[in-house]
Design a protein that fits this description.
Elements: E1 2-7, H1 13-33, H2 38-53, E2 55-64, E3 67-74, H3 84-101, E4 105-112, E5 114-115, E6 120-121, H4 123-132, E7 139-146, E8 163-167, E9 174-182, E10 186-188, E11 192-203, E12 214-220, E13 226-230, E14 235-241, E15 246-254, E16 267-275, E17 279-285, H5 293-300, E18 305-311, H6 334-340, E19 347-351, H7 361-372, E20 376-380, E21 403-409, E22 416-417, E23 454-458, E24 463-467, E25 473-480, E26 483-488, H8 494-497, H9 506-517, E27 527-533, E28 536-542, E29 549-554, E30 560-569, E31 572-578, E32 583-588, E33 593-598, H10 617-620, E34 627-629, E35 636-639, E36 647-648, E37 651-654, E38 660-669, H11 673-692
């Protein structure tokens, strides 16, 4: 219960102050004239003015409110290195016990984990939100248990009380980290590109290690790693060469040193999309026919393709007396194409080509070696392939994926995707490209236009992904050495492009086929891929075989999880995996390996791992708070007066706020107005009597 004097004046305060001024002048005049009752007149004026002001006694019934201490506990990833988690737990327990022992004091505890999307430690945002939810008049202090590495320094806290930080870690901690300073998003296949990286040392690095060289290991797409010795503290240019299109995952690892704080920042992953500068295709056409321009139109429609096209119009044995000056403008540069520059081509297509003595046997042997060394050859077969002049009877026949029987099937038929083709990326879902009016999406029965001819093949090796009448092989693919070869047993694909009987997906089929041969990653039949969306990792295993599939996922902290895949489509097994944290994930099914970086390989939490007070000092010092290292022991909590230092050796302070809640208010006049008037009158009469005796 507290009381105070309040006023409820009958006149405005300016009028009252004016009356007071007049009374003062009158009393002063009486004093100047030497009137003995001047002081009685002054008291009468005071009583009169006080009565006009109507003083009252206001009493309040108050209930004291407790002080609030906000405790923010940093439980981000960097707080799990070394013994910081134990230090944090001990400090939190001590603060809870100390605050509980203080009278009329409450504790608000807030746990801060890693921010979403690799935002780091958002401790100040959590503190600011907690302060906004509590009355400022009750905040007695804030305590942060952290390593001092917070990432939302732009958030203002506007602390009304001391702010203290309990630092985890040790003064002797040291660490090395790998930084990627610049990394290209795209790179030309076969051409070197540069990554710029740097190895930095932090903390109290031992003298026998500081500034020395470090071992750096580099691997591309999980391949054979290479190790280099590199200097520390310098920008390093790392040249790499991409060997395939699509995504290339470059994994760079810095060898961990004994005593290093953590190795979570010793790894970086750079994902570079490999693109071909130009795709060079050699198209060799044999006997002219109605579909000769099919391949040419397809390849010329792609601006990234450099096409070299030769058509054999005049075989050597043709003798018709035409003068040489009126024949072809240029000679067929067979030696230059098939000996000197054959390795520069990404794909060679033989379209209805037959052995007519133009290409010597040694040249065809060289083409076979070109395939085995990583090249690609596609044979689009016509009647010539079933004759004695077939390419099969050359050195190229050793790698062709099927043998002709010398029989040509002349009948109408609808090409269809084989059972294996339903799983192969070249023909997977091809039925959805059925023409208007066809059975789009009906697997095995698209209403495509018919083809009218088929070269009968036998003894197919590799993958038969399309079939003709009576399940005869129509499109056969195979891998030979490092390269690829394909055999299309018909020259009738052009009927689809001309819309014969409604046509069919000729462009899509030939486009996929050409890009598979040029090793487009999206068309690999055996592949393990992963896509990340938020904290969900979608794992896809593409395969031509059947059966249950499982993938072992290794998290950044080394824990392994076996994920069961389910068949989502023919040849595609898929599963979703909720990742516990960002970082580098490794996946394997025993045959294929995949590396996936969810966010950066080294999250923001591990960019700076040494406990430090540098970042938070501008916020802590103005509040009279400070920093206390937990390696010296958990502190006591004391009360200190406002404006006094709130930290000392082994203790931290909070400022009592003495807040309260008013339950009831009562107001009673000190005297009624008539009583003030009577007192003023009595004083005036006393003044007159005193002055009358004179």
């Amino acid at each position: 219960m507290t009381g105070q004097i309040v006023f409820d004046p009958l006149l405005p305060w300016p009028a009252i102050w004016a009356l007071a001024a007049i009374a003062t002048l009158v009393a002063g005049f009486a004093l100047w004239r030497g009137l003995l009752g001047w002081w009685l007149r002054a008291l009468a004026a005071v009583c009169l003015i006080t009565g006009i002001a109507q003083p009252s006694l206001q009493t309040e019934d108050r209930r004291p409110l407790s002080d609030i201490v906000v405790l923010v506990v940093d439980e981000s990833a960097s707080q799990n290195v070394s013994d910081r988690a134990d230090q944090t737990a001990a400090a939190v327990a001590r603060v809870e016990a100390e605050v509980a022992a203080l009278q009329n004091t409450e504790l608000r505890k807030i746990i801060v984990a890693d921010g979403a999307d690799d935002a780091g430690t958002l401790a100040l945002s959590a503190l600011s939100q907690a302060l906004a939810e509590e009355p400022r008049a009750r905040i007695a202090g804030a305590i942060l248990v952290s390593d001092g590495q917070v990432h939302d320094l732009d958030v203002g806290t506007d602390m009304p009380a001391p702010f203290n930080v309990l630092l985890t870690g040790h003064a002797a901690d040291w660490d090395r980290r790998l930084m990627i300073k610049t990394a290209p998003v795209f790179g030309i296949i076969g051409e070197p590109l540069n990554l710029v990286l740097r190895i930095e040392e932090q903390g109290a690095v031992p003298e026998d290690i500081a500034g020395r060289t470090a071992a750096l290991t580099i691997a591309i797409d999980g391949g054979e790693p290479e190790t280099y010795s590199v200097p520390v503290g310098q920008d390093l240019d790392l040249p790499i060469v991409l060997d395939h299109g699509g995504q290339n995952v470059v994994q760079i690892t810095l060898d961990a040193q004994e005593g290093e704080l953590t190795d979570r920042n010793n790894m970086a992953v750079v994902q570079v999309n490999g693109v071909r500068d130009r795709l060079r295709v050699l198209l060799v056409s044999g006997e002219p026919y109605a579909g000769e321009r099919t391949w040419r139109n397809l390849l010329k429609s792609d601006s990234a393709v450099d096409l070299v096209h030769f058509t054999i119009l005049r075989p050597p044995e043709k003798q018709d007396g035409v003068p040489v000056s009126e024949l072809s403008l240029i000679a067929f540069p067979t030696r230059e194409l098939f000996i000197e520059k054959i390795s520069e081509f990404d794909l060679i297509i033989f379209d209805r080509y037959q052995l007519r003595g133009i290409l010597p046997a040694s040249y065809l042997d060289n083409i076979r070696q070109y395939v085995e060394d990583g090249g690609a050859v596609l044979v689009s077969a016509g009647p010539d392939f079933a004759s004695v002049e077939s390419l099969y009877h050359s050195g190229l026949g050793d790698i062709l994926p099927a043998r002709p029987t010398a029989r040509i099937v002349e009948q109408g038929y609808r090409p269809h995707v084989s059972d294996l083709g339903q799983r192969h990326p070249v023909t997977e879902g091809l039925e959805t490209f059925a023409p208007e009016g066809g059975a789009a999406g009906t697997i095995g029965a698209p209403e495509w236009g018919r083809w009218l001819r088929l070269v009968e093949l036998t003894d197919p090796v590799g993958q038969t992904i399309m079939e003709g009448p009576d399940a005869r092989p129509l499109l056969v693919l195979n891998r030979v050495g490092e390269g690829r070869i394909a055999l299309l047993a018909s020259d009738q694909a052009w009927l689809w492009s001309r819309g014969f009987e409604g046509g069919g997906p000729q462009l899509e089929l030939l486009r996929r086929l050409a890009h598979w041969m040029m090793k487009e990653p999206d068309l690999e039949e055996e592949a393990l891929t992963a896509e990340a969306e938020g904290q969900t990792l979608t794992i896809t295993r593409r395969t031509l075989t059947e059966g249950a599939r499982e993938v072992t996922v290794t998290a950044p902290d080394g824990t392994e999880t076996v994920v069961q895949l389910t068949e989502a489509a023919p040849g595609r097994y898929r599963a979703e995996f909720q990742v516990p944290e960002i970082g580098l994930y490794r996946m394997t099914d025993g045959d294929l390996d995949r590396v996936m970086a969810l966010g950066p390989a080294a999250p923001k939490e591990f960019e700076e791992t040494i406990a430090s007070e540098d970042k938070l000092s501008p916020l802590v010092v103005p509040t009279n708070g400070g920093f206390l290292r937990l390696e010296e022991g958990a502190p006591d909590v004391r009360r200190v007066r406002a404006g006094r230092p709130a930290i000392g050796r082994g203790w931290i302070g909070i400022t009592p706020r003495e807040a309260y809640q008013t339950l009831d208010i009562s107001i009673a006049p000190l005297l009624p107005a008539w009583a003030f008037l009577m007192v003023a009158a009595a004083l005036s009469v006393a003044a007159w009597l005193r002055e009358g005796r004179r």
